[in-house]
């Protein structure tokens, strides 16, 4: 039995074990740091099946700091799908794209602050971390003065080692109380933000979101949309600067930014620990019989490098098309916030190319360090100069 997760050669490269397992043992017995014994899936088709097949259900790992209310909400399939239907009516790609000017303005402001301090700078702290929480606060109609509180709550929810379970629980309670008062205020005096729309829209089939569902929505947007995108901004820049030719190509052909973002999302080898799924009935995966009650771990970043699906998967092709990566999941449970994440990443990358064409890593790529204990994966720092 293998110990999981594996140790990669650098903070932005994949571990050798993924390629070996895809070739020889696509359903591999592993043991997690929490002592959980599971089967690790590394091939694209198998990982996609666990995401889309109803025989595989969510199985939150013991010891995680997930907010209890969210875990219970996500476990109720009917309630969860009704919530998704109501939210998707407002969370459209068109609406998210309309946020681009505001995201660009925030990006320019943060770059102004960073350049004012002079190089070198930590791009994660200066840009990657604050930008998504500012965007989400704007979406929810949260005053700018409360942004730092949201950033702190997000960090407590998603870090497995830095905070105790009690600290995470307390942060969840604080945010719940804040959002409950915020939702009540929006019902009384709606604005032009997304949350105001959600608390007032009534659907003929699904009714409207309850107070509890609105509060959950605020938490879900923060947890799913802040730390993940914050880390992805840093990783995106690090991957593109790791080989200078990638950055130079985008400077020469800025029209490649959308496909470059998709390739960065596919190429990311640091997406966290993997999705836990519980097998509800005896089934077969890649020729291996798996009994009901077994926990499977799906390695999305390994699936995104499966030679059976992607040509030259270990090469970053900034013009790759099609690019059916699984970073945002697939099927009815694919990430609701993927349109927002894509808009944020495209906007940040375009502004960086425009403002700081000479941007480069301030340390060798081998010296970049992974953030420890995060469910979503990330880099401790992204030191840059310009």
From TrEMBL:
PANTHER family: CYTOCHROME P450 BJ-1, P450, PUTATIVE (EUROFUNG)-RELATED
GO molecular function, one term: heme binding
SUPFAM superfamilies: Cytochrome P450 (SSF48264)
Cofactor(s) required, per the database record: heme
UniProt organism field: Actinoplanes campanulatus
Keywords: Heme, Iron, Metal-binding, Monooxygenase, Oxidoreductase
Family annotation (InterPro entries): Cyt_P450, Cyt_P450_B, Cyt_P450_CS, Cyt_P450_sf
Entry's family note: Belongs to the cytochrome P450 family.
Top-rank taxon, per record: Bacteria
Lineage: Bacteria, Bacillati, Actinomycetota, Actinomycetes, Micromonosporales
Biological processes, Gene Ontology terms: antibiotic biosynthetic process
Protein name: Cytochrome P450
């Amino acid at each position: 039995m293998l110990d999981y997760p594996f140790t990669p050669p650098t903070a932005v490269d994949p571990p050798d074990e993924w390629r070996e397992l895809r070739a020889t043992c696509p359903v591999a017995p592993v043991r997690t740091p929490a002592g959980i014994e599971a089967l690790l899936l590394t091939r694209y088709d198998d990982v996609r099946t666990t995401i889309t097949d109803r025989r595989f259900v969510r199985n939150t790992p013991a010891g995680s700091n997930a907010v209890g209310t969210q875990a219970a909400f996500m476990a109720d399939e009917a309630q969860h799908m009704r919530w998704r239907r109501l939210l998707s009516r407002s969370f459209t790609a068109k609406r998210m794209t309309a946020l681009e000017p505001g995201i660009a303005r925030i990006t320019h402001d943060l770059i102004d602050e960073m350049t004012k301090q002079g190089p070198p700078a930590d791009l994660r702290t200066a840009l990657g971390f604050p930008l998504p929480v500012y965007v989400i606060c704007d979406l929810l109609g949260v005053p700018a003065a409360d942004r730092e509180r949201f950033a702190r709550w997000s960090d407590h929810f998603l870090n497995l080692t830095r905070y105790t379970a009690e600290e995470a629980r307390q942060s969840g309670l604080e945010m719940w109380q804040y959002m409950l008062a915020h939702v009540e205020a929006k019902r009384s005096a709606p604005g032009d933000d997304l949350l105001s729309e959600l608390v007032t829209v009534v659907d003929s089939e699904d009714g409207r979101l309850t107070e509890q569902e609105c509060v959950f929505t605020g938490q879900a947007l923060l947890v799913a949309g802040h730390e993940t995108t914050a880390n992805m901004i840093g990783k995106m820049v690090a991957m593109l600067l790791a080989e200078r030719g990638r950055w130079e190509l985008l400077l020469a052909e800025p029209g490649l930014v959308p496909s470059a973002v998709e390739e960065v999302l596919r190429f990311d080898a640091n997406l966290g620990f993997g999705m836990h799924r519980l097998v509800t009935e005896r089934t077969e995966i890649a020729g291996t019989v798996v009994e009901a009650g077994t926990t499977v771990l799906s390695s999305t970043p390994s699936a995104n490098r499966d030679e059976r699906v992607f040509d030259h998967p270990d090469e970053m092709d900034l013009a790759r098309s099609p690019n059916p990566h699984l970073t945002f999941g697939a099927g009815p449970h694919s990430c609701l916030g993927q349109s927002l994440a894509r808009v944020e990443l495209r906007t940040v990358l375009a502004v960086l190319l425009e403002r700081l064409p000479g941007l480069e890593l301030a340390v060798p790529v081998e010296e970049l360090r992974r953030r420890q204990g995060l469910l979503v994966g990330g880099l401790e720092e992204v030191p840059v100069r310009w």
